[in-house]
Design goal:
Layout lengths: L10 H7 L1 H9 L3 E2 L2 E2 L9 H6 L2 E6 L1 H18 L3 E5 H5 L9 E7 L5 H12 L3 E6 L5 H4 L3 E4 L12 H21 L4 H22 L2 H10 L5 E6 L3 H16 L2 E6 L16 E5 L10 H13 L3 E7 L11 E5 L7 H19 L18
Parallel strand pairs: 3-4, 3-5, 5-6, 6-7, 8-9, 8-10, 10-11, 11-12
Antiparallel strand pairs: 1-2
Helix pairs in contact: 2-8, 2-9, 4-8, 4-11, 8-9, 9-13, 10-13, 11-13
The protein binds 6-O-phosphono-alpha-D-glucopyranose.
The site of 6-O-phosphono-alpha-D-glucopyranose has 16 residues, from helix 4.
């Protein structure tokens, strides 16, 4: 009903706008005196966390992209190998599991059947399991050794938005906790990362304020038949998520690629007028990667692509080549995905609305897939 949407035209628009609170509430009470405090993990003593040799993240859909983002952060901070696998692929390939493997499932609903079966399987094989979940008392947390809830509030729109940023926030908290316990980050570095995390809600507000621009862009592009998304490092899962959102909501063919893979195939798709979103890493934080992505932009532009860059405020290197630049506030590299995803969510939602589609209930999709 209109009342439930609190004055918003759709649940999705409401949920997109609630992302600052979704992150803030997920962090609330969990950062105390410069340390991460997660009482829910009391069963996982420091000794056990130091003994973990490998983390496998299992999830489906948008939740799996949150896992992919977190892989970069957890490996960098806690120096433990992280793999991310789709639950349905994991479950049926006889994965190698043991008590030193930690399986972290990510699920907004906590009811996705493929993820539930994968968690049960992992436990049967002797792995320890943690659930990142947005729904109190759901089945997956009940079947796991511990649960770290995201506090995004109920998500009604089928396409996941605020749960995604909350999942990344929760996974980052876990990664920083692990780093402290394992002694892989100095107290100063840990404090700096926690400060970055706590700054995310305000920065999300800044990105949301540009919604109108993205809306105009989407309206101009309402007849587009195919959109490509490029990203690198943590921008890669964001490219995948941007493409997923556009498929889900606007029924437009969309594909995300790792920017470095361009010359190994995807560049053959570029023809005059092809829209390409490029998630550009920060020139300050990612000095090695920024010029590589800018040169990718030059390459596709030379072949006629219409480039929409998502770049840090003040990054002038993209200006000569991009047809459009959507800005995100300055943030350390690992925190950029939390911001860069927002214009992509808005673009998909606005384009779907320009086409007259129902953004809360896209055709053929379910909010929670409770069958295998
Ligand atoms: C469905 C939804 C997606 C969601 C995925 C995983 O496909 O449409 O938006 O990302 O399930 O859901 P979960 O509840 O496990 O996060």
């Amino acid at each position: 009903s209109a009342a439930e949407k609190g004055g918003w035209s759709s649940f999705m628009r409401k949920e997109v706008s609630e992302q600052p609170e979704a992150v803030a509430n997920t962090l609330l009470g969990r950062i105390v005196d410069g340390a991460v405090v997660i009482p829910e993990l009391e069963d996982f003593g420091d000794e056990e966390l130091r003994g973990i040799r490998r983390i496998t993240v299992i999830a489906c859909g948008t939740a799996a992209y949150a896992g992919m983002v977190a892989k970069y952060a957890i490996e960098q901070w806690a120096r433990v190998p992280v793999e991310v696998e789709l639950s349905h692929e994991f479950r049926y390939r006889e994965p190698v599991l043991d008590p030193e493997t930690l399986v972290v499932s990510v699920s907004q609903s906590g009811e996705t059947m493929d993820t539930l079966m994968a968690v049960k399987y992992a436990r049967e094989q002797g792995a320890r399991t943690i659930s990142i979940c947005n729904t109190q008392g759901a089945t997956i947390p009940r079947e796991s050794d511990a649960v770290v809830y995201t506090h995004a509030g109920p998500e009604v729109a089928v396409a996941s938005t605020k749960a995604f940023v909350a999942q990344i926030a929760a996974l980052y908290l876990f990664g920083l906790h692990l780093a402290r316990v394992r002694g892989t980050l100095s107290p100063e570095k840990l404090a700096a990362q926690l400060a970055e995390l706590q700054a995310v809600p305000d920065k999300l507000q800044t990105v949301l304020a540009q919604g109108e621009r993205v809306g105009e862009l989407a309206h101009w592009m309402a007849d587009t038949r195919s959109v490509l998304f490029l990203g690198r490092h943590v921008g890669y899962p964001i490219a995948l998520e941007g493409a997923l959102k556009l498929k889900e909501l606007a029924y437009i063919h969309a594909e995300g690629f790792a920017a470095g893979e361009l010359k190994h195939g995807p560049i053959a798709l570029i023809e005059p007028g092809q829209p390409v979103f490029v998630v550009v890493p920060s020139p300050r934080g990612s000095a090695a990667l920024h010029p590589k992505v800018v040169s990718n932009i030059q390459e596709i532009r030379a072949r006629g692509a219409r480039v929409i860059a998502i770049a840090e405020a003040g990054d002038a290197a993209v200006l000569p080549y991009a047809d459009e630049v959507l800005r995100i506030p300055l943030a350390a590299p690992l925190f950029e995905p939390l911001l860069a995803v927002v214009p992509l969510q808005l673009f998909a939602m606005e384009l779907a609305q320009a086409k007259g589609l129902d953004v809360d209930q896209p055709r053929n999709l379910a909010k929670s897939v409770t069958v295998e």
